[in-house]
Specification:
The chain is an alpha/beta fold. It is 25% helix and 25% strand. This is Glycosyl hydrolases family 39.
């Protein structure tokens, strides 16, 4: 029938998505090289890292020119910065390092300088930034400053500064590198005991796993631990992505024969799995990253845009288009159907707002449902979630039935390509409140069965 029409970021009021614009604080990427691609991607919120060491190279003197340029340009484009206050500053003894895992500030002089820097940053940008993040993956690194106590302490002193200067700011804490339940439990307990946990809007985690659906249970365990201490603080997946090619030494998930196809599948499955579990989702990252220092020394090719070692953008990858398709369809005009479960009997008693579905196979599938808040028309996301995304499309032809479905004219959408297909009338039928679909092609990339009114193509 056509192709999903992209939505500009400034056409979307709000959504579940964040796009990563990280490492600009260490000059591993170039904002000006990719800025024109941000608005057409359809994601309004961008994740930025502030960079203490880049801003304060002489004690007590701040050079904000580099960060002013990025934030002012982003806000002018209608984007919303989520700004991280992070990494240490080696000009201070005990000031920690300026890269991932290099240690937190811990001397009295360094912590005072950190407080001064955080204060100056919030004062400078509070009229343009209302979401902040404290540190990045503080649990990583071979140093004495990566314990829950140290990371909690830097979170506490920093959120106190933010809330004093900007009481209504939303603040993200922890930024946990890989899900470590014991570490998280200790961190939450410290914040709760200090009466600080409730000040956080969300707790962020990063979890790079080869099968993007493999950590769903672990995320729910992390959520349960958080709820034990505070039921209102939310989880946010703050950084995740897959490479577009193989390569040791290129960062997380390097030990697999990735291609642009499997990257696109990974990113969209992770996004839609997060959406299906009510977790905000950040895509890492907008462009490839040319690391020149720290633990990674090669080009990290997790970008949606291909770049070279000079940080020049060469072209969008397939994943750019696939993420663009997700962003154009799934905004906050849709509400998740929370009561949706598989059943093997069509004629069962089902509550009015619940959905039951049969899937015509005993293979593992991810199935999530959404309803438009105004029209009440529905969308279902479906993909094979059994393994790591493959570099071929091994399609299975399956039948589905949805009890309490709601479609006027259903269509099929392939998220990876953005193509929209008619579902012939001979392939679907309605029996009372049951919608039956025959010969639906399913593979390890997401497809949609959606009412046509919800897809602009």
């Amino acid at each position: 029938m056509g192709n999903v029409k992209p939505k500009m970021a400034n056409e979307i009021d709000s959504s579940n998505w964040i796009i990563g614009c990280e490492t600009l604080d260490r000059d591993f990427a170039n904002y000006d090289s990719y800025k024109e691609y941000l608005v057409p991607l359809g994601i309004r919120k961008i994740r930025l890292q502030g960079g203490w060491a880049k801003t304060e190279k002489i004690k007590g003197q701040y050079d904000w020119k580099w960060l002013d340029h990025i934030i002012n340009d982003a806000v002018k484009r209608g984007l919303k910065p989520w700004l991280q206050i992070s990494y240490g500053n080696p000009i201070y003894p005990g000031g920690g390092g300026s890269a991932l895992g290099a240690g937190l500030p811990h001397s009295e002089e360094a912590l005072t300088a950190w407080d001064n820097f955080a204060t100056a940053m919030v004062r400078r940008y509070k009229d343009r930034v209302d979401e902040w993040e404290i540190w990045n993956e503080g649990n990583f690194g071979d140093n004495l400053q990566n314990t829950p106590d140290f990371v909690a302490a830097i979170n506490i002193r920093t959120i106190d500064i933010i809330k004093k200067l900007q009481p209504n700011a939303k603040v993200s804490g922890l930024s946990l590198g890989h899900i470590d339940l014991k570490y998280a439990d200790q961190f939450f307990k410290i914040l709760k005991d200090r009466n600080k946990l409730h000040l956080f809007d969300n707790i962020t985690y990063h979890d790079y796993v080869y099968n993007p659906d493999a950590n769903d249970l672990l995320v729910e365990k992390l959520r349960d631990i958080l709820k034990k201490y505070d039921s209102k603080v939310k989880l946010r997946q703050g950084e995740n992505g897959a490479p577009s090619g193989p390569g040791f030494g290129r960062g997380a998930l390097g030990d697999y024969n990735w291609t642009e196809l499997s990257q696109a599948k990974w990113n969209t499955r992770r996004m839609l799995s997060n959406l299906g579990h009510d977790v905000e989702s950040s895509v890492f990252t907008i462009s490839d990253i040319a690391y020149t220092s720290g633990p990674i020394k090669l080009l990290n090719i997790k970008g949606l845009l291909q770049s070279d070692s000079t940080k020049k953008i060469l072209r969008p990858k397939l994943a750019y288009r696939s993420v663009q398709v997700v962003a154009s369809i799934f905004d906050h005009s849709l509400e998740r159907i929370t009561d949706i479960h598989p059943t093997y009997e069509k004629k069962v008693m089902v509550a009015k707002d619940a959905v039951r579905y049969t899937k015509g196979t005993d293979r593992s599938l991810a199935v999530y449902g959404y309803i438009h808040r105004k029209t009440k028309q529905q969308i279902y996301t479906i993909w094979s979630d059994e393994g790591i995304p493959t570099n071929i499309n091994d399609v299975k032809i399956l039948d589905f039935s949805f009890i309490n479905g709601n479609f006027n004219e259903p269509v099929l959408v392939d998220i990876i390509t953005g193509k929209v297909f008619e579902i012939p009338k001979s392939n679907w039928s309605k029996e009372g409140n049951i919608f039956n679909f025959k010969k639906i092609p399913v593979y390890d990339g997401p497809i949609l069965i959606a009412d046509k009114s919800l897809i602009t193509y």
